[in-house]
Backbone:
């Protein structure tokens, strides 16, 4: 077991280094001089230009810059934003809870709807219900979520006036961040109105971000259930005279959930991709929106740091899923 | 591996049994039994025809503005007229005409991205699967890195470097989807290389290139075709997302994602400007997904039954 974990761990080192290379060099290739961008339309005199290039280390050879960069990254220093002068890591950590809150709600939404839908579709195989679930889930899978978001705004915010259009909480409330998760913070502050406001702001973004994972989870649950329901131990369980509900809910579901859990782990990357779009549509103050803005401002350090941090998180989650899967399923562990 | 005994069964069928149908015919009989796949095929063909004949079919030129008709609603609503069936946008362009011309862009995007990534991916996968060793490790690690980064983020970074625009967006999406083709090809190549027919070809002195391209590759095509047809939908979706973020096709191009970006600020006033471009994306992407699912089931009927 230890050896298995060790092998998996050692595999991520080259991937991580590759990611730093990518983050570093790709962004060096962006056309346009960051100092000039920073100065904006006012322009900048050449002496000050030189001075600033030196200050940011942009005058050194690229390889030296990369070496310095790696050293800093390993020390947890991801540089400062060119725009706000704040540490990139600090900015990321301030904004990340918003993204996590949204992502957790989205995945919960996807699980709570997707797993029951998948089970129902599998149990009632080839019924209208099954076709319905599969049709809806294929539609969800094909959905351009940036349009889906606009459509929901059109329906729920504009036509029915039920939910707010953008942001995390109404401007009427100010909540001192303790955990950074507004749902928890507002509960702690004991202000019912604030909690309600935070919750209603979450509804539409959650649905939008959860749509793709929901479709994937429903499909995955259905096919895993179908496979498990054909196994001998299910027939045994039925032969013992157990109720249909018990066979499905206990015997089949427990085994069917293993591949589903793996899929959820692998959805993390998809979630971040979706978060970029969802946060842009709903002006959700998370890391996705932050990165998009960094691109238009040519804020190199933010882009570099953001990519590296997001990439590392996805990598870590995938590793965790891998190892968990190895623990649950010894057959994986003993493969080369 | 459980398919092996099934194959031997086919061979030992009694003499005088009807000859097995032509593979294409068998394929079609499986494919056409799947109503979803058939619907997907019909929609894809329709979109293709619309795209081909867009200049003839469209009632107006896609970029023709008209000061007389700003944000005119669709024909069936009060204030609409049949000369603009789906209404007009904020500067008086006919939405239907723009959607028809946009179909050309979306299909070109889908096909170009998939062609590029299939070619590059197949070659890399073949090389990785055939030569193994350091070469394989280098390629596969690179693909892992691409897969690790959230796909849209990577595409955005690539576009930020190359500059926004349709060509660069297509290139970015092609790079992002590359790992799938490399992985599929490599896996198929590794599975095929140990088969007897490859050994036989090697024994009879076939060159490496010949082994790779004319012995092994044709036997890896089924999964590639399936992935490619599903890949068209991913490509259209991702390119539209980039267009929506202002990083893909630039206005006044009638690309569907770009149209949506333009329409965003009118979401409160004119539902039709927002609704139709997205619907076009959804229908097209859905059709390609249905088609891809159908192809997969038809290529591998044993999996389904």
Residues:
């Amino acid at each position: 077991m230890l050896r298995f974990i060790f092998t998996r761990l050692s595999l991520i080192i080259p991937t991580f280094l590759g990611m730093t290379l990518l983050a570093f060099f790709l962004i060096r290739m962006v056309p346009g001089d960051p100092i000039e961008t920073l100065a904006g339309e006012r322009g900048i005199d050449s002496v000050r230009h030189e001075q600033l290039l030196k200050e940011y280390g942009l005058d050194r050879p690229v390889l030296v810059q990369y070496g310095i960069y790696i050293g800093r990254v390993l020390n947890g220093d991801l540089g400062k934003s060119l725009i706000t002068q704040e540490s990139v890591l600090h900015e990321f950590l301030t904004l990340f809870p918003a993204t996590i809150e949204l992502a957790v709600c989205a995945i919960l939404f996807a699980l709570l709807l997707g797993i029951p839908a998948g089970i129902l579709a599998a149990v009632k195989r080839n019924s209208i219900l099954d076709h319905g679930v599969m049709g809806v889930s294929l539609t969800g899978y094909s959905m351009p979520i940036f349009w889906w978001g606009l459509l929901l705004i059109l329906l729920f915010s504009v036509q029915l006036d039920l939910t707010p259009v953008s942001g995390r909480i109404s401007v009427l409330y100010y909540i001192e961040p303790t955990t950074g998760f507004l749902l928890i913070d507002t509960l702690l502050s004991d202000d019912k109105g604030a909690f309600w406001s935070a919750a209603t702001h979450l509804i539409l973004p959650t649905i939008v971000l959860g749509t793709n994972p929901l479709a994937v989870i429903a499909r995955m649950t259905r096919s895993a259930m179908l496979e498990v329901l054909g196994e001998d131990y299910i027939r045994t369980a039925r032969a013992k005279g157990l109720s249909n509900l018990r066979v499905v809910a206990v015997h089949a579901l427990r085994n069917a959930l293993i591949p589903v859990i793996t899929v959820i782990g692998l959805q993390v990357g998809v979630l971040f991709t979706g978060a970029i779009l969802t946060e842009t549509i709903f002006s959700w103050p998370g890391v996705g929106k932050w990165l998009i803005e960094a691109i238009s401002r040519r804020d190199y350090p933010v882009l570099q740091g953001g990519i590296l941090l997001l990439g590392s998180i996805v990598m870590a989650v995938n590793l965790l899923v891998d190892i968990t899967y190895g623990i649950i399923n010894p057959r994986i562990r003993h493969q080369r | 591996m459980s398919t092996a005994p099934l194959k031997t069964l086919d061979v030992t069928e009694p003499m005088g049994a009807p000859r097995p149908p032509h593979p294409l015919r068998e394929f079609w009989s499986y494919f056409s039994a799947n109503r979803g796949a058939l619907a997907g095929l019909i929609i894809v063909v329709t979109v293709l025809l619309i795209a081909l004949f867009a200049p003839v079919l469209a009632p107006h030129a896609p970029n023709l503005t008209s000061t007389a008709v700003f944000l005119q609603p669709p024909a069936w609503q009060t204030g609409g007229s049949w000369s603009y069936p789906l209404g007009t946008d904020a500067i008086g362009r006919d939405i239907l005409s723009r959607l028809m011309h946009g179909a050309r862009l979306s299909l070109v995007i889908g096909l170009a991205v998939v062609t590029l990534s299939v070619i590059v991916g197949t070659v890399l996968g073949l090389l990785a699967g055939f030569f193994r060793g350091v070469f394989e490790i280098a390629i596969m690690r690179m693909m892992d890195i691409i897969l690790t980064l959230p796909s849209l983020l990577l595409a955005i970074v690539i576009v930020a470097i190359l500059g926004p625009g349709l060509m660069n967006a297509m290139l970015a999406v092609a790079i992002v989807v590359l790992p799938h083709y490399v992985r599929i090809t490599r896996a198929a190549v590794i599975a095929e290389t140990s088969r007897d027919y490859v050994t036989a070809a090697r024994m009879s002195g076939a060159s490496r290139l010949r082994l790779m391209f004319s012995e092994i590759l044709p036997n890896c095509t089924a999964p590639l075709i399936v992935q490619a047809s599903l890949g068209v939908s991913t490509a259209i979706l991702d390119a539209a997302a980039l267009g929506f973020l202002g990083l893909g096709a630039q206005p006044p191009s009638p690309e569907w994602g770009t149209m949506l970006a333009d329409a965003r600020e009118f979401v409160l006033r004119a539902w039709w400007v927002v609704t139709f471009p997205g619907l076009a994306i959804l229908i097209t992407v859905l059709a390609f997904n249905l088609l891809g699912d159908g192809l997969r089931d038809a290529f591998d009927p044993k999996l389904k039954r």
